[in-house]
Design a protein that fits this description.
The chain is mostly helical. The protein has helices spanning 34-61, 83-109, 115-139, 145-152, 167-189, and strands at 66-69, 74-76, 158-159. Residues 7-25 have a biased composition (Pro residues).
Amino acid sequence: MTAPLTPSQPPPNDPDWPPPPPPLLGPAGDPITAAEVVQGIVVTIASAVAGALLGLLWLWQAPHVKLISDGKGVYLRDSEGEAAIGADGTFVLLALAFGAAAAVLVFLLRRKGGVPLVLGLAAGGVLGSLLAWWLGSSLGPTANVVAHAKQVGPNVTFDAPLELNMAAAAMLAWPLAATVVHLALTALLGPRDPEPEGPWGP
């Protein structure tokens, strides 16, 4: 005599099948709420808009490469200068400062932290860096070097376009600084989960 076979799956008309998917959980195991998602979006937008200020500061602070023309070609005024590297370094240092400041501000406003805030800091940092790069390059000297050289005339020094030679690395400075600083502040100064009570009390 054999035992009756049980179906491996509930019938299609079973209201409890299939089971609902598990909710998205934050770092503390709490479900991610719609309010936290909205906060992450706000952080993304605010960080992206702040990229305009980064672009203006980069344009103001970055050293400019000097060019000169002899009427036939355009040459570096100082072939051994480090202005091109200085422009990249200025952008990276400013981006690191903006990322750290954004992380501190977000932590002070929302000490609990959460995945949406971290994602918002990272995405906003990338968007802000892209905006800063575009704005600084657009407001700086023209990219048409030949036309600029003809305009100023031969043997006259003029500024080269403001460029990023290590653009990919520079774009990561802000989001990396923002996420690392925010995670560090949350781990060191964030609210702690209550300890479970044992048989002799907490």
